[in-house]
Amino acid sequence: MSLDLLGYGAFFLATALSFGIICLGLNIQWGQTGLFNVGVAGFVAIGAYASALLTTPETAGRFGGFDLPIFIGWAGAAAIAGLISAAVGALTMRLRADYLAITTFGIAVTIQLLALNLQSLTGGPFGIGFIPRPFAAVQENALLFNLANLALILAVVTVLYLALERLLRSPWGRVLRAIREDETAALSLGKNARAYRLQAFALGGAIMGLAGAIQGHFIGFIAPDNYVSALTFQVWAMLIVGGAGSNRGALLGAVLVWGLWSASGALIAALFPPDQQARAAALQIAMIGIMLAAILLFRPRGLIGERGTVSRFVG
Amino acid sequence: MNPQFFADGLLMGAMIGLGAIGVTLTYSILRFANFAHGEFVTWGAYGTLALTGAIGFAAGSDIDAIGPFSFGWPLLIAGLAAAILTGLLALALDLILFARLRAKGTAIIMVMASFGASMALRSLCEFFFTSAPRYYSRDIQIAIEILPGMRMTPDQLFMIGLTAVLVAAMHLLMTRTTLGRSMRAVSENPALSSVVGIDVDRIVRATWLIGGALAAAAGVMSGIVVQIRPFMGFDLLLPLFAAAILGGIGSVPGAILGGLIVGLAEAAAVPLIGANFRAAVAFLLLTAVLLLRPAGIFGVRE
Lengths: 315, 302
Hints:
Number of helices of chain B: 11
Number of domains of chain B: 1
Order of helices and strands of chain A: HHHHHHHHHHHH
Largest sheet of chain A: none
Oligomer: heterodimer
Number of strands of chain A: 0
Strand content of chain A: under 5%
Number of strands of chain B: 2
Distance between the termini of chain B: 40 Å
CATH class of chain B: Mainly Alpha
Structural class of chain A: mainly alpha
CATH architecture of chain B: Orthogonal Bundle
Distance between the termini of chain A: 53 Å
Helix content of chain B: over 70%
């Protein structure tokens, strides 16, 4: 029993941390640079599908199945998602901030549509199965399998976290925050705001794509239903709850909101009769929506939030 | 090409245009892209459904449909009441959420809050009414040939007529009345308008009421012609934004023209790319506008 619990704990934490990676990507875009991306689910989907196509064995009636190693799939996912983000950024960076929101929303809707209907590429509504899973050799032993995957995802999160912390402290990261706080001032210092925004958006998108690939390989199966706007919304709630601007906040928010989501799901399963559960699940999303709005109103900095960084030399 | 596509596009365009008027007004007067606008469409449609049911129950007996239409007077009254209620819903949302955030500043936080509100509103709708599609009437209407090769049902003709009336009324409101002129003034420059004595808060309230009511009208139309689903407004959101940006933010004629273009383009594209990809048309149009003329047809460069 306690071993089952440990196995579930590892599974839960691995899933939550995979969401945490998406949050880290969104934190570069929104937390550091102030870019509003409403199409998170779309970029995660791009990564998941790209990696699945690269790593699955050949399948009759579907393009791809290149049977490449998982790590190549991860890298490919990040590269493709990053490239598409750069294209979206190039299109919208010169316009008002809301246009980026609307365009990314459109991207997510369109990607979902393509995933659902381009049967020969994406497998259509049934998705893609048999995606190679890391440590598939120990798949029979659920506990060992979940713990090994948790360790792998934890390693990715740690590397990403340290790299991002370093990057955001670098001059490059300082320029991002300068542009977010006062674009005119940054421009007058000779910083090309559009280019920096574009870089930040593409980097964030690449990390989201990587997260999509990691999730796809962990579960071993992807379908268009995983990448609806509810996913975008969960990730936003995670970042806002944890505290936009802080990488630790992004990870904390991911674990907390995913915990709340899983717990409320279990509660609904226990309280409602089976025929009413689909209906009650709508309440879960409503709850997250109200929580997001409430945090924006009453605690806009989130739980951890960004530390004020005037200068380490000033008081 | 089959002329029938023109009838379908016109109908779809009328719905999109009505919804886009609300989007373009909130965008220009309140200065943020309201992602919750699609939910006003949905709530308007469901509100009408619930009220029609209530009136039918109160009246006791079956009420006959009017003339050739599939609906009777209860639907018209319920639709009007639901439009007012949806306007009040928009106003309430502003009161508890947007007004407070507006006081704090940045517009992009309001976009995010509207995103959260849209999720909550849609999910509540799904909870109350379940996700099963609903209909105002299950009667089957015979389409009449209005032009060679072009058929429309009486309901659809009524919708086109209603849209024309609403758009004409909106145009007169915006160009001939003090309220309309004040709304345009606030969208140009809120600080300056309050200096000349325009009550900006009143204009904001009027904007929500009008936007919500027109969204509800679009919802009822979509409910009569297609069906009522919790996701109907969400699915309409991208075409709404595309239409508002295509027409030029802040322009009422632009919104309706943009709506017609999006609707006709969708209808024309269906035979070419298949109905499955219909929703991508609005996105392609949006991308094209952002690339070629971000200010839209009637817009002015900022």
